[in-house]
């Protein structure tokens, strides 16, 4: 069971792992032992995720999620399978935690009178500067 938040838990049966050869560190074992892990999680069909979290996760995952709604995380930072496995699970948990955080709705506000006046004053000043640059004298 992967505990994400107090309300969100993902059972082991929803996660699938595949071990592959790692492009990262590994010493002499790098060409012999499959230490990198590909962790897959089916976001689209998971009963563990609320609908709003699923929607935000689709946006956050970017290219890590395929057309079928399967999120794949590759971990090959460490030399051992166990550390890479923990790393992939932690990255998945962090991504879901970010998606679980409901963004604060923006409240539309209008600019203050002072800010409007300052903006117009700076525009006038800039226009004057440009106008003085373009004036040519015909005394030649």
TrEMBL record:
<feature type="compositionally biased region" description="Basic residues">
    <location>
        <begin position="121"/>
        <end position="140"/>
    </location>
</feature>
<dbReference type="InterPro" id="IPR000352">
    <property type="entry name" value="Pep_chain_release_fac_I"/>
</dbReference>
<dbReference type="GO" id="GO:0043022">
    <property type="term" value="F:ribosome binding"/>
</dbReference>
<feature type="region of interest" description="Disordered">
    <location>
        <begin position="96"/>
        <end position="140"/>
    </location>
</feature>
<dbReference type="GO" id="GO:0003747">
    <property type="term" value="F:translation release factor activity"/>
</dbReference>
<feature type="domain" description="Prokaryotic-type class I peptide chain release factors">
    <location>
        <begin position="21"/>
        <end position="37"/>
    </location>
</feature>
<dbReference type="Pfam" id="PF00472">
    <property type="entry name" value="RF-1"/>
</dbReference>
<dbReference type="GO" id="GO:0004045">
    <property type="term" value="F:peptidyl-tRNA hydrolase activity"/>
</dbReference>
<protein>
    <submittedName>
        <fullName>Protein YaeJ</fullName>
    </submittedName>
</protein>
<dbReference type="GO" id="GO:0072344">
    <property type="term" value="P:rescue of stalled ribosome"/>
</dbReference>
């Amino acid at each position: 069971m992967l505990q994400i938040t107090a309300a969100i838990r993902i059972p082991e049966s929803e996660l699938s792992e595949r071990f592959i050869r790692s492009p990262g560190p590994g010493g002499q074992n790098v060409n012999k032992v499959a230490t990198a892990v590909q962790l897959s999680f089916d976001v689209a069909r998971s009963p563990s995720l609320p609908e709003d979290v699923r929607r935000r996760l689709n946006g956050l995952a970017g290219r890590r999620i395929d057309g079928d709604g399967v999120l794949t995380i590759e971990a090959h930072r460490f030399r051992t399978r166990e550390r890479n496995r923990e790393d992939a699970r932690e990255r998945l948990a962090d991504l879901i935690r970010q998606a679980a955080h409901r963004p604060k709705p923006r409240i539309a506000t209008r600019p203050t009178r002072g800010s409007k006046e300052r903006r117009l004053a700076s525009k006038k000043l800039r226009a004057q500067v440009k106008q003085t640059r373009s004036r040519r004298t015909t005394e030649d």
